[in-house]
Amino acid sequence: MRSLPTANPGVPDARSPIRYLRWVAHTQRGPLLLGIVYAILWWLAMALVPYAIGKGIDAIRAGDASSLTSWGGVVLALGIAQAVTGILRHRLAVYNWLAAAYRTVQVTARQATRLGATLPKRMSTGEVVSVGNSDIAHIGNAIDILIRGSGAVVAIAVVTVILMDSSPPLGLMVLVGLPLMAVAVAPLLKPLHRRQNAHRDLQGDLSTRAADIVAGLRVLRGIGGERVFADRYGAESQRVRRAGVRVASVESMLEGAQVLLPGLLITAVTWLGATFAMRGEISPGQLVAFYGYAAFLIAPVRTLTEAADKLTKGHVAARRVVRILSLKPEVEGGTGRSEGGLLRDVASGVAVRPGMLTAVAAAVPEEAATIADRLGRYSEGDVDFGDVALATLPISEVRRRILVADNDAKLFAGVLRDELDVTGRATAEELRQALRAACAEDIVEALPGGLDGRVAEAGREFSGGQQQRLRLARALTVDPEVLILIEPTSAVDAHSEARIADRLAKARVGKTTLVCTTSPLVLDRTDHVIYVEGGVVRAQGTHRELLAAHPGYTAVVTRREES
C-alpha cells in the first residue's frame, strides 16, 4: 500500500464542517473512488449469490445436472470475487481512514504553528487535545463509511431491480420498505447530533481541567488543595459520564432499529414469497432467492444507518477542527526585507542597539514583557528593524531572526540533546558553550545518559532553577541574530546568577541581545541599561550611571521604594 500523502500546503478553506469533510474527500479522491469501485463489486458479488443459488435449486428440481454444475461454478466464482474485492476494499478503507485522520492532524498542527502564541489565548488545551484524541477517528470513520455506503446503495438498487423483474409485488415491497426504514430512523439522528455536540464539548472541558491539575499538582499539594480539585474533577467527569449515557441511549435505539426494521422487512418478504410459491406463481428456487435477497438486504441497510451515524459524528468532529482552522493569528507578516540594525519600539522608546548587550529594567515587570512581545512581533506595535517596519517582514523571517525566550517556555519530552538543539544544526562545541554560559553543565552530568538522556514531560524531573538554565541554554544554542531574554535568572541562586551574567555577556559579545531584568548582578554586566516606567523610557546609561543619577531606577533594582 502506498505511503500516506502529505496535506496540501496551507490551511484549507474550512468555513463549515461539511466543507471541511468535502475538502478531505477531495484531497484523496483517487483512493476514495477506487475504494468505492471495490466496494460496489464486493456488494454485487454478495447480492448475486441468492440469485445463483435459486437457479441451482430450480436445476435440481428439474433434474438438469449440467445446469446445476454451471450455477455451482457461478456461486464459486462469486465467492472468489467476494473474497478478492473484500480484501482490496478493506485495504482501501484502512488507507482512506488513516489518510483522513492524519491529514486532519497535519492541517491542525500546521494551523497551530501558524497561530503560535494566538492559539492558547483563543482555545483551551482540552479542545485542541481532543482533536488528536477522538475527533480524527470520527473524521476517518466518516470518510471510510463513504466507501461501503456507496456500494450499499448500488447493491440495494440492483437487488430491487432483480426483485421487480422476478415478482413486481415483492420488488415493490422492498422498494417501499427501504425508504420507510430510513424515515423511521431519521428522527433519531437530530437528538443524537445534539447530544454528541454537548458530550464533545464537556470532554474538551474535562481534558482542560485534567491538564491544569497535572501542571499545578506541586502547587496544589503545597497548599493542600489537591482534594478540592480532585472533587471538582470528579464532579465534571460525572457530567461527562451522564452526557455519554444520554448519547448511548439514542445510539442504542439506533442500533435496535437497525435490527428490528430490516427484520420486519425480511419477515414480510418471506411470508409474501411463500404465499406466491404455494400458489405456483414463483418457483421454489425463486422463493429461496427472495429469502436470500431479504436476508442480504439487512447488511446494506444496516450500513446506510451506520453511515448516517458516522457522518453525524464526523460532522461534530469536523466542527471542532473548523473552529481551530478558522482562527486568525493576532499578528500577520508582510513581504518586506530588512538588513537588520537598530530594533526600536516606538511606543516606549526602547531601542536595542546592534552588537550590544542591552537591558530593560522596568518598574513593573509586566511592562518589560509587553515591550519584548512587541519587539518579537508577538503582539501588534510600531516597531522598526533597521529602516524597515517590523510588521512588513514575513512572520517566519521574524521568528528566525528574533528570538524571545521567557519563563513560560516549555521543556518537551524526549532526548535532552534534541531538546536543546531544536534546529539540529548545532555542533557539539556550540552545545557545550551554550551549556557553560547557562551554568547548566551540572544538570547534564547528573542526568543518566547525559545529553542522550531522556527528559520527562515538561521537564518535571528538574527544579525550577534547572529548567530555567536549560531554557537559557536552548536559546543560546539557537544563536539568533537578535536574542531577547525575559528574566533569565529569576529562579537561580545569587552565586549562579553572577556566573550566568558574566558568561552570558561573553557568549553574546558582538551580538544583539536584550535582557529584561531588574537583577543588579545582570545589569552590571550589560553595555547599556534602559529604565522604563509607565511603559516609556525614563532614563538610559550604564548600570552604575543610573544608580548614581536616577532614584527611581535605584529603588527598582535595589528592591527599595523611592523616598
TrEMBL record:
The terms under GO molecular function for this entry are:
ATP binding
Ranges annotated as spanning the membrane: 32-53, 68-88, 145-164, 170-189, 259-278
Q: Per its UniProt entry, which superkingdom is the organism in?
A: Bacteria
Domain (ABC transmembrane type-1) spans 33-313
Could you tell me which SUPFAM superfamilies the record lists for this protein? ABC transporter transmembrane region (SSF90123), P-loop containing nucleoside triphosphate hydrolases (SSF52540)
Compartments it resides in: Cell membrane
CDD domains referenced in this protein's UniProt entry, alphabetically = ABC_6TM_exporters
A Pfam family assignment: ABC_tran
List, alphabetically, the PANTHER family matched.
ATP-BINDING CASSETTE SUB-FAMILY B MEMBER 10, MITOCHONDRIAL, ATP-DEPENDENT PERMEASE MDL1, MITOCHONDRIAL
UniProt-recorded name of the protein: ABC transporter ATP-binding protein
